[in-house]
Each structure stands twice: as C-alpha cells, then as structure tokens.
Amino acid sequence: MSTRELARAVIAMVFAGCASAQVEKPNLGRAATPTEIAGWDISIGPDGVGLPPGGGTAVKGAAVYEQKCQACHGTKGAGQPNDRLVGGQGTLASKTPVRTIGSYWPYATTVFDYVRRAMPYVQPQSLTNDEVYALAAYLLNLNGIIGESDEMNAQTLPNVKMPNQPNFIVVYPGTGR
Amino acid sequence: MDGARRRFLEWSLGLLAASGLMARRQEALAAEPPEVPTWMTSPGAGFNEYGAPSKYESKVTRTFGRSQAGTTGSGAIRTPLEALDGTITPSGLHFERSHSGVPDIDPVKHRLLIHGMVKRPLVFTIDALLRYPMVSRVHFLECAGNSQLLYQPTPPSLTAGQTHGLVSCSEWTGVPLRLLLDEAGADPSASWLLAEGADAAAMSRSIPMAKARDDALLALFQNGERLRPENGYPVRLLLPGWEGNMSVKWLRRLKVVPAPIMTKDETSRYTDLQADGKSLMFTYPMEVKSLITRPSHGMSIAGAGLHQISGLAWSGNGKIRKVELTTDGGRTWVEAALTEPVLPRALTRFRLGWKWDGAATVLKSRAIDDAGNVQPERDKFITEHGSNAIFHCNAIQAWSVSANGEVKHVYA
Fold this sequence. Notes:
The complex is a heterodimer of chains A (177) and B (412).
Chain A: H1 3-23, E1 30-31, H2 34-40, E2 55-56, H3 58-68, H4 70-73, H5 109-118, H6 129-142, E3 152-153, E4 168-170
Helix pairs in contact in A: 3-6, 5-6
Chain B: H1 3-18, H2 22-30, E1 63-64, E2 75-78, E3 96-98, E4 111-116, E5 122-125, H3 126-129, E6 135-142, H4 160-164, E7 167-176, H5 177-184, E8 192-197, E9 204-208, H6 209-214, E10 217-222, E11 225-226, E12 236-238, E13 251-257, E14 272-273, E15 279-281, E16 289-294, E17 305-314, E18 320-326, E19 334-335, E20 337-338, E21 348-356, E22 361-369, H7 378-385, E23 398-401, E24 407-410
Parallel strand pairs in B: 4-13
Antiparallel strand pairs in B: 1-2, 2-3, 4-5, 6-7, 7-10, 8-9, 8-13, 10-11, 10-12, 14-15, 16-17, 17-21, 18-19, 18-22, 20-21, 22-23, 23-24
C-alpha cells in the first residue's frame, strides 16, 4: 500500500467514525435522585398532585397576610400599590373588568403554586407550606368562595370550584383564534 | 445632486432633526468637500476588547415603562424599532420582559432537570449541553402583550418602538429539545411539559409536547454570543413563533406531565378576556402583524418627493407571503418588496418607494402570511375581540402624515 493509499484508508476510517458518532446519543445527563427531584419539583396542577402535607384556614391566613402581603396588596386584598386580589365578580364583560383571584382565576391550586414559588416578592420560597395553605384559604374566603373555617389542604384545595372556570375557552390545539 | 437624492437627503436630515441630532447635521456640513475632515488628519482611536455603538448613536436605546410598584425588575423594556433597519435586533436592544428581575446565574452552578413521566430523570450541566449537536435559527420573539396600547380608545402618542417594541429578532443557536426528551425517555402518552425558570419568580409555563418535539430549542447562543443575562443566560427555552412568555428564560426544570399545570402565567395572565366576559386560553402563536417603522410617529418628513417606506412584518404561523401598503388612507393598496431571505417565524423587512405629493394622508401596512392569515384593520379587530384582552393585538397600525410632514399615530 502506497503512502497515498494508506492516507486514503485512514481518511475513510475517520469519516466512518464520524458517521457512527452522529447516530450515537451524547447521553451527558446524569441520573437525578428522588431527593433531588423532590427539592425542585414545586409545580402543582389542578389535580393537586404533589401538594405537600399541612393545611391552614382563613383565620390563620389573615395574620400571615397582614405581616407579609398587605404592604403590596392592600388591606384584605383590596390592591394598591400592586395587584388587587379580591372582588371584581360580575365585571368581566364590562368596559372596566377587574381581574382578581375571585373574579378571574380558574383554579385554586394556582394560588398555592404561585404564592409558594414567587411570593412574598422580596422573599420568594420563604413561606412554610402551612402558611401558603392558610393564605390560599384567606384569599379564597375573602372572595366568598370558601368559608372562614374551611381548611385548605392537599385534599380540599383541588376540590374548590372557582366561579370563573367555566368561562375559559381553550384554543389549543386548533387553528388559533 | 439630482432632485430625488436631494429630497432623500433632506428627508434623512429631517429624521435626524426629529431625533434631536441636529448637531450632527452641522458637523456633516462642515466636512463637505473640498475640506479634509479632521478625522483624516490624525490617527484614530485604538482597539476595544468588546465593541460598542458609535457615541453619535447614544440616543438609540430601549424604552423602559415602569416596574411594578416597589420592584425594579418586574416589567418590560422595548426595542427602538424605528431606529433600526434590517431584521436582526442587536442583542443589547432586544426587548426584555421579566417578572422578578434578572438573576445572576453562575453557569458552572446552573443545572437543568428533566423529570416527570420519563424513564430516566436527568440532570444536565451547561458544559454538557454545550457538547450536544446544535442548530441555528433566526426567529422573532414577541411578548404576548406587545401592541396592547392599540386596545386603548385613543391612539397613544408614542413611537413605533414604544408601542410595538416588545418584538425582536435574533439568530438563536442551541440544542433541539427533542434530543434531550428522547434521552430521558419521555412517555409518548404525555402531551405536556412544564418549563420553569431559575429567576426569583420561578416563572413557569405548560408547553404542549407537540411543540417541544417539533421546533423547540434549548438556546445557548444569541446572535453568535452566549445569551445575554436579560435574555435567559445561561440557557433558555425557545418556542419559535409562540408568545414570548412561553420561551422560559434561565431554564432550570422541565417536567413531563399529562395535562397543563395551569400556572399563574397561563391562567390569570396571558389569557385573552373577550368583550362577552369569556377568556381565550392557550392562544399560543403570535398572529400575523406588520408595521411601518419609517416614517413613523414622532418623525418629520422634509417635503414632497420620493421617500422610502420601510417596515417589519412577521407571523408566528409561518412565513410572510405578502405585505401591502396604502399611502392614501386605504383607498388603494400596493405590494411592498420583501427583503430576502424571508424566513418562517422571523422578522421580515419590507420596503416601498413612495412619491409624496405633500398633501395630508394616512399610511398603513397589512401583512399576509403563508397560511393565508390577513392582518385585520383595528376597528374590525376591536369589534371581534373587544378592548379588554390586553394580549395578542395584531391590528393594523396607521400613521398620519400632515401637510407639514409630521407623522403621528392615528386610528384610521
């Protein structure tokens, strides 16, 4: 075999190697442990899967709210300087709709999910699960959706019927609007 | 100099004057031949390790509205569309919408977790992601709330960028998401994916698996360099053509799930309240839209004669097929030239030569995409969707030109 033929053979082998490397998957992720997943998985869907143990009522939630939420969301969720959380039912078809948890949000589980991950704004993920349940109970009670002594927990929260839920029209999948 | 060129120069100078750059005109005149300009009579500046725009362009900046009360990083900043040309947005001028500021993420410490309905839950480092096969695609990103001021009963007295600047376009380079879903062994029966960011809001959205497997990218590079912090460094999701909020920045977690999680940003926000009180949910693709960027609100056209109209068109549903312009308030429409390449789900530049007779008129553009969608007139759009939706406004933008050349936002 001449030097040139040898070079060609080597080049052919290298290209063959490249071709097989492309079908091979990189597989560079490492296995995640259940403990790692549990520490990060904070999303709660409408079925309530993943809601943690614990619970709270509106009475307990009022105290947490006054301490940690009221400065931004006003007395009893009335709003100002930031989003209003209470009221607005019956306004959605008007010229000045008021979107709040009570008038607009379709799922009660979203209150738990969002408050736990993102609130209070300056200290997200600092509330205990009991505090988050209590706040959810307080805000749902202020909106007239549950009673003052109804406990919100992993069983009860997903069963709360939000008044505006039937007014959402799911567009996807479809041809758009 | 022929008449047309002189008029074009005058119009250009008019624009400069309009943008407060009159001083530049004086300098330009001072360098007229036969004078040798001063910058040719001594050596220029040395080298920069990272370049910056000319100091004479310092007025070309994003427009920041305001952050939510008591916060600094909860709001949006808009691209100055009227000051740019071509289709790629400089990374430093790309719009930004953030929900709780820009996190300072050490890429060595950042992790991406893929779990849920998968055979093998996996954790990826950024170094690992950088070893995967990548693709590069040019795509616009548009906030679902872009152009929302057109829902107002009166036209906002704001520039094109201040009104429509929550859209930008970049070349994105990254790993096709389907590669990682395959490696994790995502359950074929699972039709949704929860995507979560590593910002202080842990911003999260549910993504249809069909989109994730179609053209979704884990973007690591923007316009050739690593992502800017405000655009998701070190890794973001990119869902071409869909509302920007879904292209979750600072991506840290993907959970394969059987149904949407119904996060705050897909229920209380990014749903479109209609006039009858019902709300449209999961209106993902950004609808076909266009606007004339030059001339546009706040500019001044210096006299009758030949001018070049320039603007942008885009559609989340595919390519722009055609852009039609009217320079007579809607009586007649003519097709504008599209600058190649015309790419799907990317900003497309259109241009048209226009001989202005000096009379007051109204300019409008109307885009049509290759799926046949036609950008609607504003009155038709409002009749159909009401004024409360906040999101997904793609109504036609009208600019009036007065006899003295002033360009203003009008509803017409």
